[in-house]
Protein: Cobalamin biosynthesis protein CobD
Amino acid sequence: MVEGAAVLGALMLDAALGWPEGLYRRIGHPVGAFARVICGLERRWNLPDLSFSARRLRGVAAMIVLPVMVGGAAWGVETVAGRFAGSWSWLVIALVAWPALAQRSLYDHIVPVRRALAAGDLPAARKAVGRIVGRDTRELDEAGVARAGIESLAESFCDGVIAPLFWFVVAGLPGLWIYKAINTADSLIGHPEEPLRAYGWAAARIDDLANFVPARLSGVLICLAGGRGWRILWRDHARHASPNAGWSEAAMAGALGLRLAGPVHYDGVRADKPWIGDEGRCADAPAMRKAEGIYLRACLLAWLACALVTGGRTWLG
Structure:
């Protein structure tokens, strides 16, 4: 099991630095390496002349190969650190875990959206939110931009913070990086449309399983950080198409006292998604600032929970 010092060290590094642009330009990001492997396997294995079953089976095989490769490498780093770094192994593990967390990145991406809205610059706000959401943003009004930003922050709180942190605490570096590989695979190939419907089935289902507990923890942390939202969390979490994303979005909608989700457009096609939350005031820049505050407090609660869990485990051990 990973030491509490390694967990908190990784959290502190991420909160203080994020993943610096200069570092990204020089060495990229580990997720980029995962993406190259995932896309390479998909090009070789997801062949159109194969049957649906054969493509699904190859997708299952890809989701065995990828975690084994990533988990094996992470286990090797953790083992070598423990053997050669001695009492400083926690620092090595924290440094290797640091890129997998996205607390700072999420915050740094949402703030420009809110600032542009607050300044009355709707085109800039649309452009900023277009960097973090997949929906069409060119025709969004102020409420639509704010709603998209808040939804992205709430959903990514699970994928980018709580889920990797959960698997780090549970299974050390292998758990953390296997989760990141699975989540990356889901985003790249876990789509229900052709030509990925069969091949990406395993990636989507495994990602659902990996996020099952973290998604519910995310909803609880948001409600605790916001001081309310429990009724909407319980009532509306199932209104989202994803079995997991609805938990954090419903919690945020309840904590803010507004509606999220609803109809959106993708590539010019309207998707009539159900609303999450009670009808009330429209999302706007002040609501986004409030969401940022809830997010930051929820992150601090996650830090506290990690300290308690890892510290208690050390004491019991």
About this structure: The first helix runs from residue 4 to 17.
